[in-house]
Specification:
alpha/beta; 50% helix; 470 residues; 3 domains; sialyltransferase cstii, chain A; 8-stranded mixed sheet; 22 helices
């Protein structure tokens, strides 16, 4: 699963954050005018920047400056070009203030926000505007309201595409929405129609691979991929193609599955940091042939800000490290493979675990079994030894040491919800669910399959149950 390092440290420059927070001081209309005049007047980029401001505003929620959350939210929506009824925005801001001081009201407030959100019409803003609202609602824990807005985002985006008024970003969003909803023929037609658009071509291979994994016909588009394979890619293929694969997430595994995990031809672990940072091998095994890490961690290691041996120490069978991006070739003699393309999740980029599942399936394994994946329905996505490793490591500002480990913390569920601003977790769940149900390649422990067999609405309910009455 994905580290939240980017959420907590999305902008490592304190001065940059301070400059952004200056915009919270002025009325929203004036702040947007100043931002577009002196920072960036590109409306599409403004929408992306607005998410950063929502993150900054959400970071104020547990502090004594929480009263600025409403101002930051209004500015973020205005910067993203979102026009919502003022009573709805007031209701949303008041809800945040109510739950902050009285967490036991949260379930009732969630019901009210869901009810009010159902009254909104898809025509009230653009597809990209709905995307911003969706991430905002999820980031404050309003899961069911977020799902209403996800549907508005897709509906309005599809309309923009059919009218010929969609940007490249919206077109890509709609294609991924069609894939998520299993409207494969419509997705294929739109991909083929857009095949001459150079700005979208880098995504075509991911769409094609995903359709092929779901046993659907590939679109008829010209491949733009590089046929030259690196040594790391060749090694990855040798370790995966035709092999039985165990993919182990860093979550809690409470059954003694170690022997079963190690019996696979290849064992892949998400965020493996050496055996000393693993639970007892009776539960999780001891082998690790391949691991994946966020590129920021590898970059810090290359700069000697983190001990690189942390990733390879006490790991005699580690053969390969996978990273989602970055120009890395090796670390302490271990080859590094960059992911060729990312899974086509609907609203945001996928989490680390989903990326690794997709990358593995593309290389034609015999089978893949998932261990420890809870798809964020558990408030602790890291097992205790790994979390302890993070706490005692040299990550900047403590890195992820506090993430998903808030026993007794009054704002713990809020902090978990805040991670939804970076990743639309429902997109991950539905993409892996599609792969599980249609590819015939994925298996999992009973705990994993119980989640993958949930409906979309049941998954929403599970997330809200996990967040509880914060």
């Amino acid at each position: 699963m994905a580290s939240k390092l980017l959420v907590i440290h999305s902008d490592v420059s304190a001065m940059s954050r301070l400059k952004r927070w200056v915009f919270f001081i002025f009325p929203p209309k004036l702040s947007v005018y100043l931002f577009r005049k002196f920072i960036d007047d590109n409306r599409e980029r403004n929408n992306s920047d607005a998410v950063k401001f929502v993150i900054d505003g959400s970071n104020l929620y547990p502090t004594r400056y929480f009263f600025l959350v409403g101002r930051s939210l209004r500015f973020s929506l205005a910067l993203g070009g979102v026009s919502l009824p003022k009573p709805y925005v007031r209701k949303l801001v008041k809800s945040l203030m109510k739950t902050r001081g009285h967490h036991s009201r949260r379930n009732y407030v969630c019901e009210q926000i869901s009810y009010e959100t159902l009254k909104l019409s898809p025509q009230q803003t653009s597809s990209q505007g709905w995307k911003l609202i969706s991430l905002t609602l999820a980031g404050f824990g309003f899961i069911r309201a977020c799902s209403v807005v996800r549907n508005h985002c897709f509906t309005e985006g599809l309309k923009e595409v059919l009218m010929g008024a969609a940007s490249d970003r919206t077109t890509s969003l709609v294609i991924k929405g069609l894939l998520e909803r299993r409207r494969f023929e419509e997705a294929r037609q739109l991909i083929e129609k857009q095949s001459t658009q150079s700005n979208l071509q880098n995504s075509f291979e991911a769409y094609s691979d995903y359709l092929a994994l779901l046993k659907q016909r590939r679109p008829q588009v010209e491949s733009v991929g590089d046929n030259v394979k690196s040594e790391a890619e060749i090694l990855f293929s040798e370790l995966v193609a035709g092999k039985t694969i165990a993919i182990v997430a860093p979550g809690e595994i409470e059954k003694e599955l170690g022997q079963e995990i190690d019996s696979h031809d290849t064992v892949i672990r998400v965020k493996f940091s050496g055996r000393s940072a693993m639970p007892n091998e009776r539960f999780v095994g001891r082998r690790c042939d391949i691991t994946s890490h966020n590129f920021e961690i590898l970059a810090l290691s290359k700069l000697n800000k983190i001990d690189s041996k942390k990733f390879v120490s006490d790991a005699p069978d580690l053969k390969l490290i996978v990273v989602k991006k970055g120009e890395f070739r090796e670390m302490d003699g271990i080859p590094i493979k960059r992911m060729s393309n990312w899974p086509p999740t609907f609203l945001t980029t996928a989490t680390s675990g989903t990326m690794l599942i997709f990358e593995t399936l593309k290389y034609a394994p015999k089978s893949v079994k998932l261990y420890g994946f809870d798809f964020y329905t558990n408030p602790r996505i890291y097992n205790s030894p790994l979390l302890k490793s993070y706490k005692t490591s040299e990550y900047p500002d403590g890195g992820v040491q506090n993430d998903f480990s808030w026993h007794g913390d009054y704002f713990a569920p809020y902090s978990i919800a805040r991670s939804h601003l970076s990743h639309d977790l429902k997109s991950d769940f539905l993409l892996v669910k599609n792969l599980y149900e249609l590819s015939g390649l994925i298996d999992g422990t009973p705990e994993v399959l119980e989640i993958l067999n949930l409906t979309a609405d049941e998954y929403d309910a599970r997330l809200e149950e996990m967040l509880g009455d914060w």
